[in-house]
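Protein modeling request. Please complete all fields; requests missing the sequence field cannot be processed.
Requester role: graduate student
Desired output: 3D structure, token encoding
Chains: 1
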Amino acid sequence: MDLLAPEIVIPFAAILAVVAFLYASVGHGGASGYLALMALFSFSPAVMKPTALLLNIFVSGISFWFFNKNKHFNWKLFYPFAITSIPMAFLGGYITIDATLYKQILGVFLAIAILRMFNFRGTENKEIKPPHLIGALVIGSAIGLFSGMIGIGGGIILSPVIILFGWGHMKQAAAVSALFIFVNSISGSIGFAVQGGVVHTEAWYFIPVAIIGGSLGALYGSQKFDMKTLTYVLAGVLIIAVFKLFLV
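Delivered output (248 residues):
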């Protein structure tokens, strides 16, 4: 299959722009969406992981810029997770594994997070408190390793964790997750390259599309959406990710 043929590249690029918009609006890079989309369009596994990481770098970087510009970023909330996630994302990117089981585990985790966000397990804690250092280091380590293995940045896991434990508000979680995804995607990409992985040509053609969609999404999410809207958008993102992880 010619992945750059017009009948393939046009619908793929259109959907990619929508995915980038949706994920960037809540501070995500969109890797889980990109992976699912590439699977639907029959991209080879060798293309999927590095492409998702590459697009993640651009979209999450743009998303972070907008959320930080609007003063939603909290350094003290970010660094405890990043300290351990960055080296572990490198290790995960270096390791080549069967991602099927990990996608299923991630799907279960996200399904639980969705139920929690809709208060099926009690009311969300409104009191914001700093994360426990040891807990943040452990969580960052686990997310980083897992993210590098399957080619995501980890923000789709970190965002609900921050909200559910009362460590930050929605837009703070979005800003922190955006930078978290950015650094982990770079680290995972380096690990992937060190073990001999190659970013295929197809990936570079889709960067402008992802940048356009991601810029519009980040601009809208950082300025226009209120807290309630962001909650539902994030939940919607998680629901889409669950279905894609289980069905693709």
